Amino acid sequence: MTRRTTDSRHMAEMAFKAATSMPAPTAAKAPSLPGAKEMVSLRIDRDVLDHFQEGGPGWQDRINDALRQAAGK
Asked: CA quadruple 48, 54, 56, 61: dihedral positive or negative?
């Protein structure tokens, strides 16, 4: 009869440790470039969107300018 070199308790402890150990920390998000724009999804009321789109192309920049002014920047 051949004896196993590892016992079941040791194997169970190894499996438990692998399943419960903390994941490796993720790398921090790299700082964005100054003045670079981020793509976001934003929900705004239809009438507000219509107001900014009435001026034609550049409506996204106009929304950005209005938000910047509201933020005091």
From this structure: negative
Nearest to 42 by CA among 64, 68, 69: 64
d(CA 35, CA 64): 12
End-to-end CA distance of the chain: 80
pLDDT digits (tens, 9 = 90+) for 34-60: 878 888 899 999 999 999 999 999 999
Confidence (pTM): 0.53
Q: How far apart are CA 51 and CA 46, in angstroms?
A: 9
Q: How far apart (Å, rounded) are the C-alpha atoms in residues 67 and 48?
A: 12
Q: How far apart are CA 48 and CA 63, in angstroms?
A: 9
